[in-house]
Amino acid sequence: MAFTQKPLILVCNDDGITAPGIRTLIDVMNTLGDVVVVAPDSPQSGMGHAITVNDTLYCDRVVIDQNAPQTEYSCSGTPADCVKLAINEVLPRIPDLCVSGINHGSNSSINVIYSGTMSAAVEAGTHGIPSIGFSLLDYQMDADFKSSRNFVKTIATQCLKYGLPQGVVLNVNIPKLKAKAIKGIKVCRQANAHWVENFDRRTSPLGRQYYWLTGEFVNEDKGEDTDEWALKNGYVSVVPVQFDLTAHHAIKDINNWEF
């Protein structure tokens, strides 16, 4: 894939435009092309593919780093809103790449369906844009993203060079390790794992009952070709994700029903 000009790269996330993860991602993408950032003005973690339909949306140009070349917009909506606005209102043309993240915390296995980070990438993918969601397995806001930089650049560079199959985006998770301790990159399948949820029931000072979601992540998948195995064993996991949710294997069985 040859470019007659620098690649145009859209950067978004779900942790908010000032989060350390997206600032690292922006810095890396500036070495690969012309960067436009459209990201939420506040944290939007766990929003999945929510979009704003019953409220106004604001998208304001901001300057966060005076010395950086990117153009940035702060959006009042969700990660998916950010991508929709970027494509339809902000960008001069369809971008050559969309990258989302770097998320503070894992988006491996079943977490992909809840992830605002991945939903931004998926939204871009539905428009035919090669897209990648990046996550670091460190939930701390002061997480060290230095070990992620070279892996992010390598994967994004390859995506720009080769593109992605139609209907596919990448879900990339990076272990919480120093760069020298990371063994490499593995292309994986999503582990068959789930959350066992608990709701901590409490009472407010005004006497109203409320709930606080907690839970335990359970991975019963023993395969050595999964994202969870790769991360546990010191590899960056790359899972190709499709957004066609059709269960093709079930069509034949359901056609045998007596409608």
What does this structure look like?
The chain is 22% helix and 29% strand. The longest helix has 14 residues, at 149-162. A nine-stranded mixed sheet has the order 3-4-2-1-5-6-7-11-8, sandwiched between helices. Strands 9-10 form a two-stranded antiparallel ribbon. It is globular, with a radius of gyration of 19 Å. The chain is of the alpha/beta class and 259 residues long. It is built from six helices and eleven strands.
Distance between the termini: 48 Å
Q: What best-fitting shape do the alpha-carbon axes yield? A: globular
Q: How many helix segments?
A: 6
Helix content: 10-25%
User: Approximately what portion of the residues adopt beta-strand conformation?
Assistant: 25-35%
What is the average of the pLDDT values?
94
Order of helices and strands: EHEEEHEHEHEEEEHEH
Question: Strands across the major sheet, in which order?
Answer: 3-4-2-1-5-6-7-11-8
> Largest sheet, described in full?
9 strands, mixed
The SS-based structural class is: alpha/beta
Low-confidence segments, ≥5 residues, pLDDT <50?
none
Number of strands: 11
Q: Whole-number radius of gyration?
A: 19 Å
